[in-house]
Amino acid sequence: MRLSPELLARAQAVEKNPNYHGEDLSSKTIIGIAAPFATGKSTITDAAIEMLKDIGVDAGIIGSELTRGRRPNDPEFYKTGTPPEELVQKGERGELINLSIFPTGEFYATSASSLPHEVNIGPLMPESLRWFEKAGCKAVHAFYLTTTPEQWQKQLDKDQRLSRTDIKQRLVDSMNSLEYALSQLDHPRYGEQRLIFVNNDGNQSIEQQAGSILDQAGYSEFQQYTYRSSHYVREMYNYTMLLREDAEVA
Fold first, then answer.
1. Which of 144, 133, 79 is nearest to 109 (CA)?
2. CA torsion sign, 22 to 115 to 12 to 186?
3. Domain layout of the chain by residue ranges
4. pTM above 0.85, yes or no
């Protein structure tokens, strides 16, 4: 998407400091799940939501307002095709919790209407988590899914992610995501681990992984699911570089 320099500058100002002062969010809990594409974020999110509902917790997926067009696998409540000017204006009025500008020029944003549940779970860009904290949410939990390169390749082959026309940009996004995870491993926030890593390597069931996330987010009803999880951030990063080289050749 091509944006005018003036609109891009305004959007970047909102992205740098959303300064949210909209609806009170003190009753909202956020469970953000970050990871490169095709690592199971949506599958684990859906399982975690159902498990919370089973114990009587109002839970649902975090919504988004997007400038891009609709994709076949987008959740029904994703608001796609929003004019960039409209999102920028909402941000300037302090109505956006966060605004992310992708290299393609597309905008992703979250507002109070994107968080209709007591517990809102879903894929989030890691760098956006701090804005949920600053917006006054009750609690913000950050998880990062990792997997072995072999397991990741199986998933990529299964849903043909590598054959899509936007593969190069997806691989760039994956590298950026993994670089963020590496930075958190090397320099944890406030001397503590900022991201909690959960390994999706095919050896644990979806229920096991979702339950582990929920237990570590404070829901002791799922403590039997928690397991000691390894992380494969460096291995995934190196593999992403190889995939990107293959994409460039293709």
1. 79
2. positive
3. 5-249
4. yes
